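Our consortium's second objective concerns turning raw sequence data into structural hypotheses that experimental partners can test. To show how far this objective has progressed, the report includes one record in full. It was chosen at random from the queue rather than selected for favorable results. The single chain below, 321 residues long, was entered without modification.
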Amino acid sequence: MGVFNIFNKKKKEDLNQGLEKTRNSFFSKIGRAIAGKSKVDDEVLDSIEEALITADVGVDTTIKIIDRLEAKVAKDKYVSGEELNSILKNVISDLLKENQTLDVNELTVPEGKSPYVIMVVGVNGVGKTTTIGKIANQFKSDGKSVLLGAGDTFRAAAIEQLAVWADRAGVDIVKKQMGSDPASVAFDTLNAGVAGKHDVVIIDTAGRLHNKVNLMNELSKVKRVMQKVVDDAPHEVLLVLDASTGQNAIEQARQFLETTEVTAIALTKLDGTAKGGVVIGIADQFKIPIKFIGVGEQIDHLQLFNRDEFIDSLFQTKVES
């Protein structure tokens, strides 16, 4: 059993603090929407819709939520603010359940996958390198042997930053000079991972989107080279997105999905934004499991995404009627 499989008190506190800006913005708008109201009318629904869009849930997902909310609450039925809050919570929870196959409760290495190879993609500035370091730290803390590959060879800073995180997490790293072939870094890293009997190998990649064709070709080449060493690698392709960019994160996800197969998503910087609703929009629109959320800068502030805990934290503030 992994040490990260329990959602303990500290993690709940970190999550609550990380979602504070979104929660306060969202519920202040809902509170104003229902102030002095005794029933859910078009004005209330419009205000809730505005609150959802402001939280960057996204237009399509917001319309879906409002339609379901309207179906559950007859317009002539009198409800309190607390009742409306509960109904809205259930609607959003049900939506996430439909689009997340299951919660990630434990960071594990699947049987028969040794080393377990994770390729991490995402544009520059989203917290990709930091996320890799924090994931490595979690695996290492659970007793796993971890090796990092500095495959973003287009920026010297990316190589240096990953080396700092490798040292901080106490894990090994394979790196080359800036400008080296990213595929060769991946090849050497996997060879070292196999030879060293590492449990987990995490490969960083360049964060560029200005030319999708080049990006697609580069990622495809990295995969092909990996498979010369581990025939079914990568076992996971993790897309890192910056939650604070809201709808831009959704657009980035769309573009990466056009260039490569993504199996899981990490959303960073939730603590610095009121746009935490983007978690709901991304889960709904792309049907790809959200595996990690970043709720702070510390090394242990990257959390495995737990749907129920996320919803409970988002809705912990009661709306007063």
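The partners drew two points from this record. The chain is about 50% helix and 10% strand. The domain at 116-307 is CATH 3.40.50.300 (Rossmann fold). Both points have been shared with the crystallography group to help prioritize constructs.
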